[in-house]
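May I ask for a sample protein chain and its fold as tokens?
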Amino acid sequence: MNPALLTYSTLDRQAFDAVAAAHPDVVIPLEQTPDWVDFERALGRTPLGIWAYRDAAGTLVATASYVHVVRRFRESVVVVNGPVWYAERTPAAERLLMETVRRQFRDDPTVHPLYVRLQVATLQPPATGPIEHGWYEREIVVDFTPSEAELLKSFRPNARNSIRRARRNGIEVRNIPREEWKRVFATELYPILRETAERDGFQSFDSSYYETLLTVLGDHLRLLVAYGDGQPLSWLITTEYRGYSVYYFAGSTQAARSTFAPYLLLWEAFRALKAAGNTACGLTGVESENYPSLANVTTFKRNFSKNVVVVPTTYDVPLDAGRYSMVSSLLAARRSGPAAARRTVGRLRQAVGRAGVRGRTNTES
């Protein structure tokens, strides 16, 4: 006999704050908070709220904040850097949550997703895929509980030497006042991000994305910039929530590399975050099987800690297995060549027509 599905209900800000206060030892990512819901909404996206899942005894099992995404041939519901677990995260508990989520969105008359995307620690049905990966799988975490001197000593010699060389090169790190964030980012820092993206082969968001982030989530952010001869060379944005910080976005010029500015910049960020009471800092993604492109940043981040943390991989929970398989085949065909893509598009259009599904366009988190 299958266990009963979990019960689920939405959490308003007051109820969410009560849950967070009752579980002070649980690390809740900023992306799973009401403040991030406000950020998604300010971007013009469609958040579906934060939901709490409880077992038959009424014990809280997990929470998840959802964003509704619509793209060609498919709708999806995405949990960014979640769900958050409050009960033991066993394979059986994960399967029960996924079955509950599948039932929840099958029964929801307001959305018609092809799949729900969320992080899964143990791959098992109904999880599969994903059609595309949505979050890194490993990150380096720096422990702030040692003293500042001990923390510096724990870095690799290369990092300590680079910090000293940056100082000798006259690099100055400034903590930008909040009232100047938007202007400084748009005029001085976004051009650096574009240079970084072109050099390292990734695609950044438009400047408006970061300006909205700085405006809506300002209570949880810091913006630090490294200057050389009065010119901005390197910058970073960190987040903070409940004593846990994240090195979230960064950019650097070629001149920053030659002056070792990013090393001093990150060290000064660590000092500020530690002084503010944060106990750790996640450095976000490093190289893994599904993210080999992160090899370059991995080399830099490993200078600051040996502590590599495995993050549950993002998978899809299909609500319509047949259509999900067809869409997945289409995307695979597109990657393999135009002829295969045309054949698959034809089959998919027939399937979509029979199902009466309308295609729309948006941007996925």
User: Anything to note?
Assistant: The longest helix spans residues 181-200.
